[in-house]
């Protein structure tokens, strides 16, 4: 396992979190517990010492002193009584202060000055700790000595020790818990991530058939699905690119062969008449034109696909656009004796689009209709409803088989491979049209019957300013 892996980070965070809660909690508990306990004991021995001190009138009576010693053995406290010189005259059982021993001079002077002696006392012989209160014994305004009441705090220190041990134990438990958690999570989280890493590296090396098997429905599962989708997409992209280059070289090879052949014929004077020579030159011109159109179309399409085509959006009237397109395609239609019909409406809501690009779309569709129609009429219709405008270009031409319709807008897709070349198309027209329509927020669809004709339908949203 790597030290900078997510699992280790997670484990350490949990450990820190648990310790961050446990340590202050232990400290606070310790403070509250000791504070509370000390106060209570202090109060108790204060009161007792006061009661005892006021009940002593003389230190001469042995019986009274014995009674106090006896009294102390029946309670948790110890009692030490000293005379006016600070010499112990009664002791209920504190080994370090036997009878006859002198107490510390500071304590005695406090008692003499009628002050309380409050302190923690450590009995060196029994090795026990006490809270002690010493109080002067005054009878008839005469200082007789002092009484010390001592309560053992050993039990409390033992309880504190237990609390400290519990905190340490809980801390150690937290460390083990964090390690255990790290171990479990590493199996649940880290292993699938490592598997994904391996798979993505394989995909990056070009093995696009690699897939990750994941059955979970959580974030890891969706990451695995996303990587699988990426691999599928890359696979599709790679085959598209391969197909695209094959198509381009195929498209370029034909005109280049023509150009080479006819230029060669002209160079070697392989023509019989001037007419033949002119015919050869015309072919060269046509093929060069075709090549230039192909390159231009490809350039335009790649710009659109990369989102780099600048469109000039404005409010446009589709009636005007269609009329301009009709003017430009009229001659081609006349050459084939085809009728171009436009159901002229007098008012149409405007759409927000690029006028020139819109004209390019309409010209392309009309030219296709002319190209693939031998006789009959080409109908262009404009209609609208409250939120959209519809443009249809319908012909009475050769039609498109149903199975070809889904692929019609793909680059270089042709219904019959030889058919479009014979008619002079590059196979990119509809791909460009679809891109342009979508860039202008429109949709395009097609309906066709083989032998009867084809109808392209374009829908654009009405611009907001013109919506009723
Ligand atoms: P091209 O430049 O070859 O015409 P397009 O992308 O414009 O390429 O069209 C793709 C194919 O769709 C054409 O090769 C043709 O087979 C078919 N097609 C397009 N428009 C029509 C139409 N109006 N009638 C019949 N077939 C059509």
Automatic annotation (TrEMBL):
User: What is this enzyme's class at the first EC digit?
Assistant: transferase
Q: Which Pfam families match?
A: HAMP, HATPase_c, HisKA
**Record PANTHER family:** SENSOR HISTIDINE KINASE CPXA
Q: Which SUPFAM superfamilies match?
A: ATPase domain of HSP90 chaperone/DNA topoisomerase II/histidine kinase, HAMP domain-like, Homodimeric domain of signal transducing histidine kinase
Native source species: Cytobacillus oceanisediminis
State the name under which the record lists this protein. histidine kinase
One GO molecular function term? phosphorelay sensor kinase activity
* Annotated InterPro entries: HAMP_dom, HATPase_C_sf, HATPase_dom, His_kinase_dom, HisK_dim/P_dom, HisK_dim/P_sf, HssS/ArlS-like, Sig_transdc_His_kin-like_C
The protein's superkingdom reads Bacteria
Compartment(s) of residence: Cell membrane; Membrane raft
GO CC list = membrane raft; plasma membrane
Keywords, alphabetical: ATP-binding, Cell membrane, Kinase, Membrane, Nucleotide-binding, Phosphoprotein, Transferase, Transmembrane, Transmembrane helix, Two-component regulatory system
Q: What are the EC numbers?
A: 2.7.13.3
